[in-house]
Amino acid sequence: MNTEKKELAVAALRSGTVIDHIPAAVLFEVAKLLQLENSTCMLTIGNNLPSKTQGLKGIIKVADTTFPEAVMNRIALLAPEANVNVIENYEVVEKRRVELPDTLINVVRCHNPKCITNNEPMSTRFVVIERNPVKIRCSYCGQVH
Amino acid sequence: MEHKSLVSIDSLSKEEILRILRAAQYFEQNPNQKILDGKIVATLFFEPSTRTRLSFETAVQRLGGRVIGFSDPAATSTSKGETLKDTIKMVSNYADLIVMRHYLEGAAQYATEVTDIPIVNAGDGANQHPSQTLLDLYSLYKTQGTLENLTITMVGDLKYGRTVHSLLMAMRHFNPTFRFVACEELRMPEVYRRFCEKNNIPFTEHTDFNQAVIDTSDIIYMTRVQRERFSDIMEYEKVKDLYTLRNSMLETSRPNLRILHPLPRVNEINRDVDDNPKAYYFQQAGNGLFARQAIICRALGIELPVK
Questions:
Q1: What is the domain-level CATH number for residue A30?
Q2: 0.95 surpassed by pTM
Q3: What range defines the domain where residue A114 resides?
Q4: What residue ranges of chain A have pLDDT lower than 70?
Q5: How far is Cα B141 from Cα A33, in angstroms, rounded to an integer?
Q6: Does A124 touch chain B (CB under 8 A)?
Q7: Which of A2, B141, B161, B226 has CA atoms 20 to 30 A from the CA of B1?
Q8: What is the total count of domains within chain A?
Q9: Is the reported ipTM for this assembly greater than 0.95?
């Protein structure tokens, strides 16, 4: 019964993007990564919803918006199990898992204050060295985050 | 003509390392040649390092090349706020090769991405200093006749010592055994211990620089224990003399043992070791010239009569 209601809630979006299966603990970080605080679109953010696989999960619905794949994949850094559903006319037209790319360009900053990327106007670049848990290495100073 | 930057020791394969060492050996036998005739090498030292700069500049000049550059960034546009990218692009118009030292980590890698001329990293902060590692490897190769199956004891500051970390990583190709001798505060970091485990490199850790460790080593690589590395100054006072090598400690050591040190040395090697034929640190520094001649020729794609 509950499941039906939840599915109905997702489908109720006429068009836009639904990001589901976000661990509750990182929901607001994901929202920040998507810069939703600046969005003027209709937004629904749910958190601490029960999940069979995750304990508690979060969900974000953004009306009339689709995000580039690269932006979606950045979410994988925080929420590797998140699902992205693209909705058009109340129908799910695309459903996929976020995917952490092998290389992250300009996604995160290096923590090392002596890294060249924090001292020169340039892009950051990280290589993913482990996926579970996620470990990335700065291509410049070599620090592992 | 293929040219190759040298940013990090990790980027070199076993075969490339050995090729550079053979080239260094060739230059040791023939240090003065005109093979860089007409070439200009820029040495850009964004932080001072007299020893490394002189070694690179001597390497170029003994091969007939010419040197431009600076050793004091205060006198350059960097002090006016010029970006590294702009400096590198500007110098690339004048030189065939840039040898650079920078206080920021990753600076050399970034330089390779903004220019078409080769870059040789002469040290980028605490990150990489591949020419030091290659001269260390050449010193091992020269004194032991091989790089294979050596027992190497590293002593002193194993936590912050860039040279010991790079040497450890480069030796992964050559089946070494390591002994790490350090106090708890300056212990070899976990990332390098894990690196050894992953690469099946046997190692033992010691807080005591004892006779048994010395007597079973082929190489003792000493490093300086610096006061500023300690959060507790009492701790420094306690350990500062524990990792000092004295001549009397070498009496029963292996005949092939050699003592290495990246220099400058302070108290960690007693002066009475200097006259022992097993002391090799001054020759080690001298090997830097040949290793750097080899590195420069590789960077410029100059063919040498060695395999």
A1: 3.30.70.140
A2: no
A3: 103-138
A4: 1-11
A5: 52
A6: no
A7: B141
A8: 2
A9: no
